[in-house]
Specification:
Elements (H helix, E strand, L loop, with lengths): L2 H10 L4 H9 L7 H9 L2 H4 L7 H14 L11 H21 L4 H5 L6 H9 L2 H4 L1 H17 L4
Helix pairs in contact: 1-2, 1-10, 2-3, 2-5, 2-10, 5-6, 5-10, 6-10
Length: about 150
């Protein structure tokens, strides 16, 4: 199964956007399913229904951290691994924004999921089924491109 198919399958089962993206890449990092699902749970709906950065992107940010994140420090805050991670996070967000005009959940869905009435409207209008799958797939696609690019 491709990563896009894996992400779609997780999302179709009822997992969140961040969970679906992270789980599409988890085997590349020997990350077990339960751990990946738990880690990513709070990042859905723009981070815990705050409607901030789209969960499909924050799931992607986690993937970037797993691949390039800083684990050894010389005592400084930054360094090569941090700079690479930050650059790729910014690039993922930039490419997503080029496609969708924003990286914010509230703008992508045109509603505020922290408001129960608006959340009910989003469900009633099928926004989670009509919009979110595209965001999940685009994040996976962009991530795969970043991972395969020179310097990525």
């Amino acid at each position: 199964m491709t990563r896009s198919e894996t992400a779609s399958a997780y999302f179709s089962k009822g997992y969140g956007c961040a969970q679906s993206v992270l789980c599409a890449f988890r085997e590349s990092f020997n990350l077990d399913e339960e751990t990946a699902l738990r880690i990513a749970t709070g990042f859905g709906s723009g981070m815990g229904r705050l409607c901030e950065v789209c969960g499909s992107l924050t799931g992607g940010f986690m993937v970037i951290g797993l691949k390039w994140g800083k684990v050894i420090t010389d005592g400084s805050k930054y360094g090569t691994d941090t700079e690479t991670t930050y650059r790729l996070v910014a690039e993922l967000a930039s490419r997503f924004k080029e496609r969708h005009g924003t990286i914010l959940c509230r703008e992508l869905l045109e509603c505020d999921l922290s408001n129960p009435d608006e959340r009910a409207r989003a469900a009633r209008e099928g926004l989670f089924q009509t919009r979110c799958p595209r965001y999940v797939l685009d994040s996976v696609e962009i991530l795969e491109t970043l991972i395969d690019e020179p310097g990525g």
